[in-house]
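Technical annex B. To support the medicinal chemistry partners, we prepared a structural model of the target in complex with magnesium ion, based solely on the information shown next.
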Amino acid sequence: MAAGRVIFVTGKGGVGKTTITAALGLAAAGAGSRTLMIETAADGSLARLFQIEKLDSKPCWIADRLAAVAVDPQHLVRDYFSRLLRIPLLTNRLLDSASFRALADAAPGIVEFLLLEHVSTWVDASFWQRRQRFDLVIVDGPASGHMRKLLRVPRQLLGLVVAGPLRHAALHLESLLTNPDRCVVVPVSLAEELAVTETLETWAVLRQELFLPLSRPIINRVFPRRFSRSEIEKIARHEDGGPLFEAARYAIAMRQEAERHARALRRGTGKVPALVPEAFSGVITPSDLCRWGRRLLAELFTDAGWGTKPSGSRTHATH
Ligand SMILES: Nc1ncnc2c1ncn2[C@@H]1O[C@H](COP(=O)(O)OP(=O)(O)OP(=O)(O)O)[C@@H](O)[C@H]1O
Ligand SMILES: [Mg+2]
C-alpha cells in the first residue's frame, strides 16, 4: 500500500489552526482521501468543532473517511518507556507527573521525537498493517515556536547520534519531513502585525534552515472586498458620518489592512497567500468549513483531488 501524506498546520496562538485543520480534513475526506486529524493541544477545540465531547487516543470516525485522534505527550512517553523498561511499576514511578517534567527537561526533544514518530506511523506503508493507515494525516499543530522545535528534532538527532536504531528513526523522519510529495507545512496567519511577523520568522526557519516544504501561507479571517475602487473613493469623500458610512469605512479599512499584510507575506515568502474569509455570524458551520477547505485544497495544492504533490507555487490570489 502506498505511503500517506502529512500536513502540519501551524501559526501564532489563536490564528485559526484548528479551524483550518477541520476545513482541510472535511474537504480532503470529501474528495476521497482517508483522512486523520490529530489534536495535539488537548484543549478539546477540534472535538468541539465537530460537536464531540472529547477525542480519544484511538481514532474515532466523525464523518465519511474522516477520523480524529488526540495525542497526549505524557501518554506517548509512558508508552515508550513501558516498551523499553517492560516493568510497569518502574514506568509508573518514572513518569508520575512530577518526574515527567524532569524527564522531559533532561532529555530535550524526547516528547517531540515521540510525537513525530507517532504521526509517521499513521501514514507509513507497513507490511504487517498492524495499525489503521490513512492517506492523509493533518496535524493541528502547536503554535509556531513549539512547531519549529518539533520539526527541528530529526535534524538535531542526526547531529548527535552517529549510528543505531535512533539514527535510523531520525533518518526516516527527516526523509518524511523533507519530501514535498509526502509532507507540507501550512502556515496560518491573521491580517495583524504580530501574526505576520511570526509567520515570516517561522517561514525563515522551516524553509531556509530546515529545508521543509511549505504551502502558500493562509491569512484567516479576512474581510471580503465589498466595494469597487470608485465606490471606495466616493465613500471616502462623502461627509455623512452616519452608522452605515462608518460601517462601510471600517470594512474598507479592514480589507485594505488585509491586502497590505498579504503583500508583506508575499514579499517575505515569494508566494501569494490564500485568504479565508471572516465568518461574521460568529458561528462557524460545517458548510463554512467544507467551502473553505475545498477552496484551500485547490489553492494550496496543484489539484483538489490530492493526486499530485503539494505545489504552493501558484501565482494569483483567488479571493
Ligand atoms: N474565519 C473565521 N471567522 C470567524 N471566526 C474564526 C475564523 N477562524 C477562526 N475563528 C475563531 O477564532 C478562534 C480561534 O480559532 P482556532 O481555535 O481555530 O485557533 P487556533 O490557532 O487553533 O488557536 P490555539 O492557538 O488556541 O489552538 C475561535 O473562536 C474560532 O471560532
Ligand atoms: Mg487550536
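Notes passed to the chemistry partners:
Residues 308-319 have pLDDT under 50 and may be disordered.
DSSP finds twelve helices and eight strands in the chain.
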